[in-house]
Structure formats: C-alpha cells, structure tokens
Amino acid sequence: MITVALIGQPNCGKSTLFNQIAGYKSLAANFPGATVTYTKGTTYIDNELVEVIDLPGTYSLSWYDDAEKETVKALFSMDIDVIVNIVDASMLIRSIELTIELMSLEKSMIVALNMMDEASKKGIEIDVKKLEDILGIKVVPIVAKKGKGIKELLASIKHAKKPRKRCVYKKEAEEKITDLSKCIAENLKDTQWPLKLLSIKAIEGFEPCEKAVMETPCAEMLTKIKKDLDDGMVIINQRHALCMNIFEQSSQVKKTRKKSVESYFDDILMHPIFGYIAMIAIFAGIFYTVFQGGVPIENLVIGLFGDVDNYLSLVIHNQLAFLIAKGAVDGIGAATGIALPYLLPFLFIISFLEDVGYLPRIAYLMDSTMHKMGVHGTSVIPFVAGYGCSVPAIMATRILKSKKEKYITAFLASIVPCSARTTVIMGLAGYFLGYWYVIGLYAFNLLVVLISGMILKKLLPGISPEMIIDIPPYRLPSLKTLLLKTWQKVKDFVYLAVPMLIVGSVILTLISYYHLDVYINDMFKPILQDFLGLPSALGVVLIFGILKKELTLIMLYQALGLSSIAMVSSVMTHTQMLIFTVFVIFYIPCVATIAAINREIGIKGSAFITVGTTVLALVLAYMTKIIFLAL
Amino acid sequence: MKSLKKANKRNLTNSVCGYKLALMRLAEAETNKTYKVVAIEGGCNAKDRLIKLGLLPGVEIQIKRKAPLRGPFMVTLNDSDIVIGRGIASKIEVAEII
Ligand SMILES: Nc1nc2c(ncn2[C@@H]2O[C@H](COP(=O)(O)OP(=O)(O)OP(=O)(O)O)[C@@H](O)[C@H]2O)c(=O)[nH]1
Ligand SMILES: [Mg+2]
C-alpha cells in the first residue's frame, strides 16, 4: 500500500481535501492551525487501496510551533511514498517557498493547486502548464471545497515523480551550501534531514539545525558562511526573489479595484468600538438561541419519558427488574432529551463560527486583554474551542509558541465551560432560575478566567513572543460540512457518554435499591453538605462527572431519587442549584482532558491543573453559598 | 544599531530611485499608507515566522487597522492580511514610499 501525505501551509485546505478523499475524519476550519495532529485514512485509486495522511499546516520545514514540528517529524519518520503539496492559489508567492523546500526532500511529489475559485475571484489567473514547467512537478488545479479536480489529482498521484533537480540560489551561495553539505556528510552520520536542507537551515539560523552542525567540526565553516551570507538573509532573499519570479512568470493579476467583502465586514467586526459590541452581541446571541431552543425540548422529552416510566411500571412487575429498566430508559431519555437539545445546536454554532473565519478576528480584538493574562490573542483559538470540548482546546495549544503561554492557556481553557458543562448551566441553572443566570454564569466564568490568568502570569517565569497570525478571508461553509462537523464533535457523546450513562443509571438504581447510598453519602457529607450546603447524594454525580462531564446533569435527578428533572426544585433550593453549577463549571477536568493536558504540558502541569481547579471550584462554590445565603 | 546604519545607507541609494527617505518603525507608521520594509531587528524572536509570511526587507506593506489599547496591527502584504503584535511592529523598520 502506498502512503500519501498531504502537506501544505496552514489553512490551505488540506483537511478539506482529506475529508473529500478519505471520508469525513479530520476537522477542517477557517483559521490557521485547525489541525494539530495527524489523521490517517484510506482511499482507492484505480481499485488500489492507498493510505492518506492529513498533517498540520506548516509554513516551512523549519518549524516555529509544536503543530508545525509535528508535520516535519512525521515527514521524516513516516514511510511516505508520495507528497501531495497543497498550495493556496490565491497566495502563490508565499506557498511556493514551502514547495521549494519540499522539492529538496527528493521524494515523489505533486502539487495540488487549491482555492482556484478564490484566486480567480481575486483576479489571479494562473497558467498551470507554465507553472508545471518551471517547477518541474505535476500541478493539478483543484477546488477542494467543491470536490473539483479531485479525480484528476488522484489519478496523477499514481504517476508522481521525483522533482527534477535544480539550483535555487545564485552560484556563490550554492557553492557555500554545497561545501557545508559535504562537510556535514563526512562528520554527521545520524540525521534525518536531507543534507542540503540541513545546511540551508543551519545557515539561516534555524536552531535545531544550527545546533546539530555546531557540534561537528564544521562549526567553524558554518560561522564563516553565516557571516558571508549576512546570517542567511542572502539565501532567504534569493529564495523569495525566485518565488516572486515564478509567480510573475506563471500568473497574471487583473487588478480588481472593488472593495472586497472582507473589508466591509472587517470595518464593523474589527472596529475599535463596534467590533467589541458585535463580539459581545454574537456570544450573548449564541447562548440565548441555544437556551431558548433547548428548554422547550427539555420540557417535551421529560414529559414523554414520564409516560414511558408509567408504562414500564405497568408491564414489569418485578421491582428490581423495573428499576433497572427504568434506569436504562431514563439514561437514554436524559441523553437525548436533556443533553442533545443543548449540545447539538451549540456545537453547530461553534462549528459555524470556526468556519466563517471569525476566530482570528477575535484574536485581534482580544490581544491586549489577553496580555494581562500573560498570553496573546492567538490563545483565543483554544479558548473558543474550549466552549465546545476541552480536549481539542488543550491540543490547540500546540499553535502557541512559548511554554509559558501553553501552560497558562491550558489551565484557562480547562476552566472554560465545555459544551457538557453548558448542559448544566442551561439545563439546571437556566431551566430553573432563568436566562439571566445563564449569562451571569458565563460572565462570572470569564471574570474568573481573567483573574486566574493574571495570577498565573505573575507566578510563571518567562516571556512569550507576541502574536503573528494570518487572517483568512471570510468563507461561507456549506450546510453539509457543518452538519458533518457537528456530528464529528457529538459522536463522542453518542458512542461514549450514552453507554456510560445507561450503565451509570443502572448502577445508581442498584446503589439505592441495596441501600448503599448511605455509606457513599457519608463519605461526601463533610465537603458537600457541611461545607457547601449541598445534598450529599450529589457526590456520586460529581464522581461520574470526572469520567465524562455530560453525565453530571443527566445523573443528577436520578441520584437525588427523583423520577424526573422537573422535580429537582422540590429537593434543591435555587441557591443550592447555583452552588452546584458553579462547582461543576470549575472542578476537575474530565479524564480525557487530563490525559490531553498530560500530553501537552506534562505530568506536573496536569497535576497542578487538577488540584488547582478543585481548589478553585471549592472556593468559588463556597463564596456563592455565603453570598446567596446572605441575600 | 548597526543594522540601522546599514539600512540608512541602503535607503539613501533608494531615495535616488524614487524613494524619499523617511525611515521609521512600523509601530509609528500610519494606516493606509504604503511603506517598504527595510529591516527586521535581529533579536526579534518572531523574525522567522515573519519571513515565512512574506514580511521581509524590500516588501511593500500597509497598515490596515490598529486595535485599541496598544493592541496589534492588521497589515497587508502581497495581498494577504496578517495580524502582528505591536511589540513586533516596533522591531520592523520601514520607509515611507512617497
Ligand atoms: N473557497 C474555497 N475554500 C476552500 C477550498 N478548500 C478549502 N477551503 C476552505 O478553507 C478553509 C481551510 O480549510 P482546511 O481544510 O481546514 O485547511 P487546512 O489546510 O487543513 O488548515 P490547517 O489544518 O489549519 O493547516 C476552510 O474554511 C475550507 O472550507 C477551496 O478550494 N475553495
Ligand atoms: Mg487541517
């Protein structure tokens, strides 16, 4: 089986292409850095099975952040037969820089010239044949989003050839590079880098390469060459000039003097005053829509499942069997009736936000606020992802440059309420106390995020370089991609949370049937009842919540021994609901999130976040109790 | 400082070819005017990424908008939009094209 790797600069459409040829598996979104880890899939070319790998975008092979490093690592360590270099046709000059680097790997490759639709909208006309001749590689124009040109692309993958050798730099520079390569070949045996590329990157001052060479006897030579070539600027300039040249030879630009759609939208959405008003309105609007849409469905389903329970009690006469059946039915009912009405629309809207390209614009607006927390605007991307699910949010910290930034963002993203916690905010606090409590809780959460960030900034040493982010054009996603993406995000809930929920419900039923709850509740009494003033029965719910946050709301009423969530108000006061919700928003992230934190920032970080969030939740829930009991 | 002097020299020649000398930091530049990038300060941590995004000496650049409260800049170069922090902007040397 041959393996094909999709490689290209961030946001050029790799994941979109991948999803087109290998089935919807990778999340595409309209901001640079949407993919931070590889995804493998398969497809058929002429009845032959082919492996396809989607990789994070990288501007070049000398990585800047961890997402880019992931790609270079994969490129060097995986067995890749063909490189499909995806190039954004509307940004040809910058994209060819990567193409030239990839050519030096001397692997079979083809260029997929994507976004042809946007290029022509910008007035750029590319002579594909000419580009092909100049580069010496097969070039296939495609529009990944619409599936155009994909057949031709797949067909040419089979005939991909190694690029014809060529010199990129002027004679003087080429000679120096060759000298250094020769020296390295004699002195450095174990490197995954192609020697010429290693030399170039060392001269340009890319740290891992420079360090590797400096440890060999070629160090002196490198120092001299660097001096001669103005610290590598000479080759950088020559390469850039070459890219400009290729662009000019192969493309014609008709100046469209029309003001683009972007500028009209940006004039409002990035305005120094209206931009912020719009942002607040957009988020308040999202919460409002999800809330207003969810409550009636929650009501409806609760009624429906009450009827089913009554029916069950009529047909099943064995008490234990009835309870178990009821537990299972309640589990399914709660999942579809209480969680999904909030989860689905919420995840759908978040997907929409990601796909239109609003996120990098929020990054721009929020940059100076984020500085107060020791991070930059780019961290907005993990934050917003955190409203969906904490796991991808934590992984998204790979697009951040410094350790400090990653650490702070991971901590803060894990206390941003994920969609599962949103079900508690809306389905419990909102359902019983009203919409303004929903908004209040989200605002309160942001305030806590801000203050925690300011404290973390003081505690952690180090500085982070400022943000640099590429602003993509606005793009309108199709309904189909949005639905597929929402399904991709909610899949986990259906396959993982629902079975857990059914098992959990049955366990809860059994616990109360055998009167084990007395012992368990005694365990939680000091913290929950004495300290926070909550029913001890909620302890089990909170434990299940660590496994998967979606379980929290759904198991709540079962743990309280109620037949439906509507009855919660008969055993819990409004203040208790609020205390519970505050606790749930902040306490320990779920197991999957802890594992992700572990991977991204290490065991120390995950231990700190686990303990830190618990303490935070206890303090804030206690404060809620004091304040609201005093009112 | 050395790079600045070098840049100045380069720019002097430039002025002969139609560029008038008005050297400044990008951070002090105005919106919607076209500038030419002269140099990126060496110690700048982000230099690598800037170069990859096409922001390198000789390129024409425009500031599209500035975020309030000492926020970042949105700049246009080679027809693409990039946002850069103000600190970075203060390490980029530009010359106004008149
Ligand atoms: N107009 C247009 N948009 C496209 C095309 N291909 C992809 N897009 C859009 O471009 C955006 C980025 O696509 P992705 O597939 O996420 O890009 P990527 O290369 O995987 O990006 P990273 O994972 O961030 O490196 C999405 O909004 C796509 O819908 C195309 O051919 N034409
Ligand atoms: Mg991707």
Give your account of this protein's structure:
- The complex is a heterodimer of chains A (631) and B (98).
- In chain A, 66% of the residues lie in helices and 8% in strands.
- With 631 residues, chain A is an alpha/beta fold.
- Chain A folds into three domains: 156 residues, Rossmann fold; 83 residues, Helix Hairpins, CATH 1.10.287; 331 residues, no CATH class.
- In chain A, the strands form two sheets. In chain A, strands 2-3-1-4-5-7 form a six-stranded mixed beta sheet, with helices on both faces.
- In chain A, strand 4, helix 3 and strand 5 form a beta-alpha-beta unit.
- In chain A, helix 14 packs antiparallel against helix 24.
- The termini of chain A are far apart.
- The model of chain A has no long low-confidence stretch (mean pLDDT 90).
- By secondary structure, chain B is of the alpha+beta class.
- Chain B has one domain: Ferrous iron transport protein A (FeoA) (SH3 type barrels, Roll), CATH 2.30.30.
- Chain B has three helices and six strands; from the N terminus they run αββαβββαβ.
- In chain B, strands 1-6-2-3-4-5 form a six-stranded antiparallel beta sheet.
- The longest helix of chain B has 15 residues.
- The N terminus of chain B is likely disordered.
- The chains are: A alpha/beta (631), B alpha+beta (98).
- Give the biggest sheet of chain B: 6 strands, antiparallel
CATH superfamily of chain B: Ferrous iron transport protein A (FeoA)
Strand content of chain A: 5-15%
User: What number of structural domains do the residues of chain B give?
Assistant: 1
Low-confidence residue ranges of chain A? none
Structural key phrases:
heterodimer, A: 631 residues, alpha/beta, Rossmann fold, Helix Hairpins, 3 domains, 6-stranded mixed beta sheet, two-stranded antiparallel sheet, 27 helices, 8% strand, elongated, B: 98 residues, alpha+beta, SH3 type barrels, globular, disordered N terminus, binds guanosine-5'-triphosphate, binds magnesium ion
